Amino acid sequence: MTQDTGAGPAEPAIARANQEVLRRFPFDDDRDFEDARHGFLGTAAEPLVRDEEGRTVWDLDAYGFLKGECPDTANPSLWRQGGLCADHGLFEVTQGVYQVRGFDLSNMTLVEGERGVFVIDPLLCAETAAAAIALYRAHRGGRSVTGVLYTHSHVDHFGGVRGVLSDEDIARGVPVLAPEGFLEHAVSENVYAGTAMARRAAYMYGAALAKGERGQIGAGLGQTTATGTVGLIPPNVHITRTGQTETVDGVRMVFQLTPGTEAPAELNLHLPDRAALCMAENATHNLHNLLTLRGAQVRDPRVWARYLTEAVDLFADTSDVAFASHHWPVRGRDRIIAFLSEQRDLYAYLHDQTLRMLNQGLTALEIAERMELPPALERAWHTHGYYGSVSHNTKAVYQRYLGWFDGNPAHLWEHPPAESARRYVDFMGGAAEVLRRARQSYAEGDFRWVAQVVHHVVFADPANTEARALQADALEQLGYGSENGTWRNFYLTGAHELRHGPVGTPTATNSPDLLAALTLEQLLDAAAIRIDGPGSWDADITVRWRVTDGEVITVRLRNGVLTHVTGTGPAAAEPDVEIALGEAELRGVLLGVLAPADLAARHGVEVTGDLGRLAELLGHLDEPDPDFAVVTP
Predict the structure, then answer these.
(1) CA-based max dimension of the chain
(2) Integer Cα distance of 518 and 185 in angstroms
(3) Cα–Cα distance, 130 to 628 (Å, whole number)
(4) What is the mean pLDDT of each run of 10 residues along the chain (633 residues)?
(5) Residue 211: strand, helix, or coil
(6) Residue 160 near residue 120 (C-beta atoms within 8 A)
(7) Neighbouring residues of 149: CB distance < 8 A, sequence distance ≥ 6
(8) 556 and 562 in contact (C-beta within 8 Å)?
């Protein structure tokens, strides 16, 4: 079994805590395993999914070790969830509806129509999507794809579309459906803060960690993210209201819009002719994130709960099976109602109780320590915090309503981490004394405190190898004990960084397809985010673009801010240079693939004024760092 280099055994305190989990929860309840295996038709003969260069982007056999007994280095509940998520193959959900599971973080659902097959959520990358549909065709025949639906705007639900559709398919009119606002949110999330999100996602999903009992065993929602080619084909059919119906290739669908739940643009759908309900990512077999650890906009658990109630009212009476874009289906009307109602109560409880306590003056950290789920919810496996957690979701609710500040003025203007760390270590008697006492805490099993206090030594002196080693050991133990897959991955990847240096960022989401889907306004916004403000305080540069479709855009860099104005009204300053060009050329300049000096030679481009001013403006753009350190300064 491949192990993370340098990983040690579980300390006795962690081993005891994991044994207590076995005693606390009903591990003899096999219903989830029966549901997950229901309708299994087969899996791929070749376990490795490779890209065009032969690089492995997914390994179906990587998690075979989860079939064994849970070791002391893993929380048994997370081990159980990992085994369920790692089960891979083609499954019949109900007559004419199939899922490929275990081929990526998410599921691909296939609904057979009159002529071909309708694809719901084509995974994260083209390679795994192509492997998934090949498996379907091996069992159900070579049906062509007659339509695609993106249930929401997260990349693991649209990024693999070019594995199931080609440009020729789009040219011949294959419909691509998505909820209103999909494209705006899909591309902006992966561009505006995309570098930082992708960097943190590398820690959250643990894609760089070795798979094994001392390494990565899953992410709760699925196992990990595939590392192939991300693409995007923009939707051409938009779902704009609850109750909207669409029929594609004879597949009749009724939609429920759920904006502001798990994604800012999301929907559920009912297949009335199959008595099947797709809950997208609004009801899965875990507590989901209200604020994902990779970073995102804080989600609204209040409306999330209300949409789950609405889903029960709209569809439960006419549904024999409920499935989602992750995990496995639930069958039977009574079980569907119970499942959706418990999921509803889960988000409503966290929302309401957080507000109750914050209105009593408790801070986010205090609320997170006090929050406990009702016993009836905690007994249900599907409410466990494998992906989201009670702790960080509670903090997200607090952040949604009150922001980062807890109201204590002592926290209003604290020193940044490295400066604070040096002062803390000095106050505590120096690094040697901190480490001496931290080792005592480690021996006592107080790994949480060790991680908190040794962090200061690492940030005060990143070259202190003794501190780095102790911090890595503490993070590792916290990972071994975590029920939450993303917490485990963060802890273990942090330990890896301390021992071996920063890991890379395996998955890039700012692909050519996503960049091409940005509007000109979004591209200009993305450029504004990259301006080196202090380095451009004294700059005053105005460039006017006359695009061949008649649009006039004036951009100005002044006071360290890049603004843009459409038209030539009072807000548009007189330009230093005016450039008439096509939209393709303008995109090329903004994306950095067309140099200003090459513009004048382009056919159809006219330049009036000093072209060097454009080069000067672009010179103020800063480059993001896709591999920044996380657990070291």
Answers:
(1) 77
(2) 10
(3) 33
(4) 68 98 96 98 98 96 97 98 98 98 98 98 98 98 97 96 94 96 87 87 90 97 95 96 98 98 97 98 98 93 96 97 98 98 96 95 96 95 98 97 93 95 96 97 97 97 97 98 98 95 70 82 90 94 89 93 89 92 92 90 92 96 87 89
(5) strand
(6) no
(7) 118, 119, 120, 121, 176, 177, 178, 253, 269
(8) yes
